[in-house]
């Protein structure tokens, strides 16, 4: 590889923090590829199996959402790296505009290099996060459009799921809402288990293998590199950070560490779901403050309602903005003595969602470690959860959901 091509590699922001020896190691996995004009390199929706740096010639990028826009990349520009680093599919078409020479880095080779060399991995991930953060600034948007780097919307939505009663279904709700969010939007979704003592998120998704997070939450900060290192990628298209294998003591949990996690994850994902324990701990209160939406789960049972009332009144005394809270009536039964109308009157707001009591599909899904929306998508509980996430995301109801609303008007949560 020529010294000119080495200089081109060094000009890629993703590799800006690598030293000369590390650039040499990177060069070992790069293939020089000649391409004739008119040849398509890849199309939107395809698997991201490589990314490219232009050594000579030009490449045309075509965005599905902007078909009339023509973006031309030239020598020194690069493309396709976002899908490789994140493990997502292609977001645009790439066509060779004129005869070109490309420096190709295959995803498998790139992943192997990252796994074998921790120093290179840390520097590349750090540069990647810096680039993501920089692309959110208004003054860089024009440059991004010009170079063909099209960042996703960085307004990450943080959703915390909380049940004042143990076993109230917070983990099940977090898992299924995350999976449906990915299915409906195709965007990046992370689920974090904030129950560091008795968390079971990994079991609900049958994710038993992966790095243990014991010790992570005792650090002074959870960086983007730490998130990349400890996240587990699941075939549902979502990532998770599970609770540690060893329980933490409550007094050792530093809310500042969680603020760093949420802030750094927000630059990497479009949606962040947080599964919490059933206590009004300092950690949970900090997570509430960081959230755009807090789903309060309550069952139509006197004890469950009493605990929610106590939590609600406590937050009101703390002047917490309760408009962020959405009440979800879980394990709903028509014949329950606790009526939704009475709850709405007590809390002064509408019930956001009603999730039917349907034990069989839920128990089977939990035992298998499979989201019920995947294992039993036609069950009433799965339809209710799907409807709730559509309402949260302001998406229209599907035809099946519309039919369900007509058949079960009592369960209509669209108000």
In short:
The chain has about 425 residues and is of the alpha/beta class. It is built from 17 helices and 14 strands.
Structure overview:
The chain is of the alpha/beta class and 415 residues long. It has 17 helices and 14 strands. It has helices at residues 3-10, 20-27, 81-86, 107-116, 118-134, 141-147, 170-185, 201-204, 224-230, 255-266, 282-290, 302-317, 340-347, 359-368, 372-375, 380-392, 399-407, and strands at 30-35, 40-42, 50-63, 66-73, 78-79, 93-106, 157-162, 189-193, 232-233, 239-241, 271-275, 293-298, 325-332, 353-356. The strands form 2 sheets. It has an 8-stranded mixed sheet with strand order 9-10-8-11-7-12-13-14, with helices on both faces. Helix 7 (170-185) crosses helix 16 (380-392) and helix 10 runs parallel beside helix 11. The termini are far apart. Mean pLDDT is 79; it is low at 135-154 and 408-415.
């Amino acid at each position: 590889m020529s010294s000119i091509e080495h200089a081109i590699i060094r000009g890629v922001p993703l590799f800006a923090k690598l030293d000369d020896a590390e650039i040499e190691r990177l060069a070992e996995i790069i293939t020089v590829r000649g391409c004739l004009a008119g040849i398509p390199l890849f199309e939107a929706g395809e698997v991201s199996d490589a990314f490219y740096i232009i050594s000579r010639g030009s490449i045309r990028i075509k965005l599905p959402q902007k078909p009339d826009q023509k973006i031309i990349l030239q020598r020194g520009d690069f493309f396709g790296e976002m899908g490789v680093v994140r493990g997502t599919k292609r977001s645009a078409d790439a066509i060779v505009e004129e005869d070109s020479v490309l420096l190709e880095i295959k995803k498998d080779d790139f992943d192997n290099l990252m796994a074998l060399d921790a120093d290179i991995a840390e520097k590349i991930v750090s540069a990647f996060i810096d680039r993501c953060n920089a692309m959110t600034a208004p003054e860089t948007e024009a440059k991004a459009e010009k170079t063909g780097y099209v960042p996703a919307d960085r307004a990450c939505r943080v959703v915390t799921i909380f049940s004042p009663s143990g076993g109230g279904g917070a983990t099940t709700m977090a898992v299924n809402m995350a999976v449906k969010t990915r299915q409906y939007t195709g965007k990046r979704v992370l689920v974090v288990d904030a129950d560091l003592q008795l968390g079971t998120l990994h079991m609900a998704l049958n994710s038993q293998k992966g790095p243990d997070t014991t010790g992570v939450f005792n650090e002074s900060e959870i960086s983007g590199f730490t998130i990349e290192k400890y996240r587990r990628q699941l075939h549902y298209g979502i990532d998770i950070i599970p609770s540690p294998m060893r329980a933490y003591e409550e007094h050792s949990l530093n809310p500042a560490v969680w603020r760093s996690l949420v802030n750094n994850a927000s630059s990497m994902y479009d949606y962040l779901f947080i599964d919490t324990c059933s206590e009004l701990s300092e950690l949970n209160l900090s997570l509430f403050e960081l959230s755009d939406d807090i789903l309060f789960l309550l069952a139509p049972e006197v004890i469950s309602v009493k605990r929610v009332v106590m939590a609600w009144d406590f937050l009101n005394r703390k002047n917490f903005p309760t408009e962020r809270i959405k009440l979800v009536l879980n394990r709903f039964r028509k014949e329950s003595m606790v009526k939704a109308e009475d709850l709405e009157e007590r809390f002064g707001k509408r019930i956001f969602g009603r999730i039917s009591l349907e034990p069989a599909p839920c128990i089977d899904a939990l035992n298998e470690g499979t989201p019920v929306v995947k294992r039993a998508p036609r069950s009433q509980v799965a339809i209710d959860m799907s409807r709730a996430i559509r309402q949260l995301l302001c998406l229209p109801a599907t035809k099946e959901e519309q039919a369900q609303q007509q058949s079960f008007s009592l369960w209509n949560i669209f108000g």
